[in-house]
Specification:
Elements (H helix, E strand, L loop, with lengths): L1 H8 L2 H6 L7 H27 L2 H24 L9 H38 L1
Amino acid sequence: MFSQVYQFLLDHKAVIASGITIETIADYNLAYEFAARTAVMAIVSIVIMISKDIKLFLVMFIMNILREGFETIIDPLFPLINAPASPTMDLIIHLVIVGIELLAFIKLYKMYKSVKEKSIEVHSS
């Protein structure tokens, strides 16, 4: 994510090489807003990982699943000029990523429920 932030903030040549036009003030506005949102998402993810709080990890996985889910649709439909994979391969890659994140979310949710149930048992004893 931080590489995208760097590109959209500082490396406009790389952005232009991918087929994205940055010519007008409105284009720069969109590029900088995208960079800011991506930076916030990356920083929040790091803070969540440092916290080691299962509930926050669940939120992070939901956030990542939704982001990758949208990219699963957007990237193959609107491929970048210098995309590293064909639209079909990009779709497959995103489906695999979303599947892995979904499995991780389910496992984490089960862990959370187990910890919560044990906590309730301890408090009720």
